[in-house]
From TrEMBL:
InterPro entries: A-crystallin/Hsp20_dom (IPR002068), HSP20-like_chaperone (IPR008978), Small_HSP (IPR031107). Residues 63-111 are annotated as: Disordered. This is Hsp20/alpha crystallin family protein. It comes from Haloarcula salinisoli. Pfam families: HSP20 (PF00011). It comes from the Archaea. The lineage of its organism: Archaea, Methanobacteriati, Methanobacteriota, Stenosarchaea group, Halobacteria. Residues 21-133 form the SHSP domain. Residues 68-87 have a biased composition (Basic and acidic residues).
Length: 133
C-alpha cells in the first residue's frame, strides 16, 4: 500500500495550474474594462450568494472584493453518521489606473458574476479650484 495522498497531489496540481495562468488559489478571477467614462469590474464568484460578498473601495482607487461561504450537512443512514462542513473564502484587491467617484459606484450579482461599475472621477471630483484675487 502506498503512502501517497491523492488529495494532496490534486491540490498541488491546481496550485501549479494557478501559477501558470496567473490566478492563485483563494483569489477572485477578475476582468477590468475601461469604458471611457467608467471602469467595469467583472468578478467570477460561482456558488456564492449576494449576502456572502463584500465590496470595498478605498482611497478612490483600490477595490477589494471578498466572499465567504460556509455550509454544514448531516446524513444518518443505519449505523453510519456522516457530518460534513465546508467553508470557503476568497479575496482580491485590484488597483484602478485612475480615481473613481465613490458615491456613484454600483454593484450587481447575477449567475455567479459580480459586476461593479465605477465612474471615473472628473477634475471637479479631485477638489475645488479656489481663484486667487
Amino acid at each position: 500500500m502506498s503512502d501517497r495522498d491523492p488529495l494532496s497531489e490534486i491540490e498541488r496540481a491546481f496550485d501549479v495550474l494557478g501559477d501558470q495562468f496567473g490566478v492563485a488559489a483563494g483569489t477572485v478571477p477578475t476582468d477590468i474594462v475601461d469604458q471611457g467614462d467608467s471602469f467595469v469590474v467583472h468578478a467570477e464568484l460561482p456558488g456564492y450568494d449576494s449576502d456572502d460578498i463584500d465590496v470595498q473601495l478605498s482611497e478612490g482607487r483600490s477595490l477589494t472584493i471578498s466572499a465567504e461561504h460556509s455550509e454544514e450537512s448531516e446524513t444518518t443512514d443505519g449505523r453510519y453518521v456522516q457530518r460534513e462542513r465546508r467553508q470557503q473564502s476568497l479575496s482580491r484587491t485590484v488597483s484602478l489606473p485612475e480615481a473613481v467617484t465613490e458615491s456613484e459606484t454600483a454593484a450587481s450579482y447575477e449567475d455567479g458574476v459580480l459586476t461593479v461599475t465605477l465612474p471615473k472621477a472628473t477634475a471637479a471630483d479631485d477638489g475645488t479650484s479656489i481663484p486667487v484675487n
